[in-house]
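FW: tagging you since you asked about this chain on Friday. Here's the raw sequence from the shared folder, copied in full. Didn't touch anything.
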Amino acid sequence: MNFLATARFPLARRRHALQMAPEGSQCRYPMVAKTIPVEAFDLVVFGATGDLARRKILPGLYRRMTAGQMPHTARVIGLGRSRLEPDDYRRLAAASLREFVVTEDVGGERLDEFLECLDYLPVDVAGDAGWQELGEKLRDDAVRVFYFSVAPSLFGSIAARTVETGLASPDCRIVVEKPFGGDLASARVLNGDLAKCFEERQIYRIDHYLGKETVQNLMALRFGNALFEPVWNAQHVDHVQITVAENLGISGRAEYYDQAGAMRDMVQNHIMQLLCLTAMEPPARFEPDAVRDEKLKIIKALEPVSRRDVVRGRYRAGGGVGSYLEECGNAESSSESFVALKASVANWRWSGTPFYLRTGKRMKSTLSEVVIVFKDPPHWIFGEQIDRRGNVLSIRLQPDEGITMRMTIKDPGPGGMRLTEVPLDMTFAEALGESVKSLPDAYERLIMDVVRGNQTLFMRGDEVEAAWEWVDPVIADWTMAGTMPFDYDPGSSGPEEALFLMHRDNRRWRDL
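HL: got it, structure written out here
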């Protein structure tokens, strides 16, 4: 939803529209937009008893059904190694919904209707057991989606088996989760394995950051408003900051994370996608390949990163929590839990405007945001005794999704000209009130886009490889140098060296 709807349609009026909307209507705000209906579909979930299915896939589908977007003719077929009966799986699903969906929203007829859509089969992905039974359950007249909620090492073999067994129809779709390889070479192998079985139009590489409401509002903000586009360039923007910080450690992901590190885990995908959407040129049309073509141009325009423009960190013990080395269980580890770097986009729009990227674990707070810091006015009329206060546009992904713009105004009252800062606040929770609870989670939106066949918010194969092509030399450089990450305190903003990365440019990071 475009955030400017809050200005065009007063809150009371929109709430009235919600109350007056006919039962079963698929339009959340009838005055603003209509929701595209979803066809009947068969969603086959490999790894249906795993953490992702329990936390995200099943709750997301349940919320879409209660919102009227998932048809009652849809079916979700869970596959796994566990020898469960369908009723056992439905009980597991109900327990997951009660744990990960707002309690008052789970129960009664709505829950019964959703559970009726669920089925389960034990399947051996490496053998023959269960595949014939799966084929007997799939319908020819429904959209067919295969969700690979399993380790990436199994993507190629499962894709091949769906083709060999005749289950992969010409119009079926597959969904694969990150990581999409661990470097350029492995990404190419993975893309090659999938390309042997499916066309690119059938492959949906999911990055849940692209499904967040505020990420999509970044595109609406840029390309739907004449106000911002003329100043969205190096002439008016001093620098851009992209931050994805977490106050949690690596517990539960230690084995994977110690192999990946923050650069592979976050920068190559999530932060890269945010950079692309911030820096890309307006596409000719809001269509999947038009949008993804422009994102690819940005990745290919990224300059190589010099060693002095990268800072790695690793949290030490403190504040009642263990160190990174203690949590990962590898005293010889050289992986980082924090990385900050300065990136440059070599094109006419952004030449000379740095993009500062940072991500880390055990940080001061959990925060994901894109910040556009505009340049000072070219001529300051108020005298040097009054501080200059630049305009800052903050697009916050989490928590408290929303957009704020810092403006300079006169401080009210007598006594001469005094300036102060005020925010133009477009925080969703404040603008939408109780109705903000109905905003879809990233996964539920993306799953519905798969069913609709809309690839706009999914990464293309060449986009993934281009990202690795930029990231790999950065990792290779610090590996060759043999440098170790700098230590930082848990609950901080990262290592002091990351502060110097900006201080030397007379800039500073936003507070977490």
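FW: The first strand starts at residue 41 and ends at 46.
HL: agreed, and The CA atoms of residues 218 and 277 lie 7 Å apart.
FW: great, closing this out.
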